[in-house]
């Protein structure tokens, strides 16, 4: 509907729900697929931080503020979207809310990711983020190509 | 394609690469059109300085003005909404990549 406030992604994972739940909420497993070395476990209200491990972003620290953990169903946290300039203090900016929701599917587990709250992010900062990422596309395109090749 | 797109965007970023202009854009980001007097209030800037900055922003297609009686009212250019959409596209692409890695992780 042309919303500028939220992103929604839905995907079918061919794995049992408990497996997916662990991959999302065990902080070490989360770190392995997301590409971040987190320093602490997730619990409601926890502030968890860690070094990004993805190529080209190793100088960045990621921060997450855990909101909800409803076993096997919902995991949510807040963070600063696209906080990729180490010289900028993002702490005063509004955060976005990321929600992972799991549902039973015939061939595995359906995962829905919603990130919302973008309308509160200053427009000048969005433009800045686009500028910053001028070279970032190549890394992403490479990752997607690798993923597609692996299938 | 990439470089011509980047070249087309260069004036936008040059225009935003100034704290005063970013502050002006920040004020207009609320969505309400404002007069130069309004934009000058509670700043140490003169009317002339604000006018000059607005002209740079206008040349880059970030703001535009319309007449309201004797005054000109300035507002963000609607086209810049595209910028916001592209920001979401980019974050969406990051999620696609992260999801791909999660998929490989749980299915592997």
Brief overview:
Chain A is α+β, with helices and mostly antiparallel strands.
Q: What is the structural class of chain B?
A: alpha+beta
What order do the strands of the largest sheet of chain B run in, or round the barrel if closed?
1-3-2
Task: Give the percentage of residues in beta strands of chain B.
Answer: 5-15%
Q: How many helix segments of chain A? A: 4
What is the general shape of chain A? globular
* CATH architecture classification of the largest domain in chain B: Orthogonal Bundle
Provide the helix percentage of chain B: 55-70%
How many structural domains of chain B? 2
Which radius of gyration of chain A do the C-alpha atoms yield?
16 Å
CATH topology of chain A: Alpha-D-Glucose-1,6-Bisphosphate, Chain A, domain 4
Distance between the termini of chain A: 31 Å
Q: Summarize the largest interface: chains and residue counts.
A: A-B, 42 and 37 residues
Largest sheet of chain A: 7 strands, antiparallel
How does this model look, in words?
- The complex is a heterodimer of chains A (151) and B (108).
- Chain A is an alpha+beta fold and 151 residues long.
- Chain A has one domain (6-120): Alpha-D-Glucose-1,6-Bisphosphate, Chain A, domain 4.
- Chain A has helices at residues 17-25, 27-34, 123-132, 136-149, and strands spanning 6-13, 36-38, 47-52, 61-70, 74-79, 96-105, 108-116.
- A 7-stranded antiparallel beta sheet of chain A has the order 1-7-6-5-4-3-2.
- In chain A, strand 2 (36-38) and strand 3 form a beta hairpin.
- The model of chain A is unreliable at 133-145 (pLDDT under 50).
- Chain B is of the alpha+beta class and 108 residues long.
- Chain B folds into 2 domains: 2-76, Orthogonal Bundle (Arc Repressor Mutant, subunit A), CATH 1.10.10; 78-108.
- Residues 1-7 of chain B have low confidence and may be disordered.
- Chain B is 65% helix and 13% strand.
- Chain B contains 5 helices and 3 strands.
- The interface between A and B is large, with 42 and 37 residues.
């Amino acid at each position: 509907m042309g919303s500028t406030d939220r992103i929604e992604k839905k995907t079918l994972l061919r794995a049992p729900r408990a497996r997916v739940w662990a991959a999302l909420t065990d902080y070490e497993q989360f770190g392995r697929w997301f590409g971040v070395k987190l320093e602490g476990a997730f619990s409601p209200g926890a502030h968890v931080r860690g070094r990004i491990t993805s190529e080209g972003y190793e100088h960045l620290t990621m921060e997450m503020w855990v909101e909800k953990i409803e076993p096997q169903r919902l995991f949510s946290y807040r963070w600063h979207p696209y906080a990729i300039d180490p010289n900028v203090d993002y702490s005063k900016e509004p955060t976005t809310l990321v929600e992972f929701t799991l549902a039973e599917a015939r061939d595995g587990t359906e995962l829905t990711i919603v990130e919302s709250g973008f309308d509160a992010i200053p427009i000048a900062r969005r433009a800045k983020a686009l500028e910053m990422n001028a070279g970032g596309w190549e890394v992403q395109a490479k990752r997607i190509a690798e993923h597609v090749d692996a299938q | 394609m990439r470089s011509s797109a980047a070249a087309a965007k260069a004036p936008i970023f040059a225009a935003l690469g100034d704290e005063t202009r970013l502050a002006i854009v920040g004020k207009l980001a609320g969505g309400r059109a404002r007069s130069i007097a309004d934009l000058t209030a509670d700043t140490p800037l003169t009317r002339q300085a604000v006018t000059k900055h607005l002209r740079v922003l206008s040349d880059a297609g970030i703001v535009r003005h319309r007449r309201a009686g004797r005054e000109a009212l300035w507002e963000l250019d609607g086209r810049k909404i595209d910028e916001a959409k592209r920001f979401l596209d980019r974050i969406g692409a990051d999620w696609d990549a992260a999801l791909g890695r999660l998929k490989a992780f749980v299915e592997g």
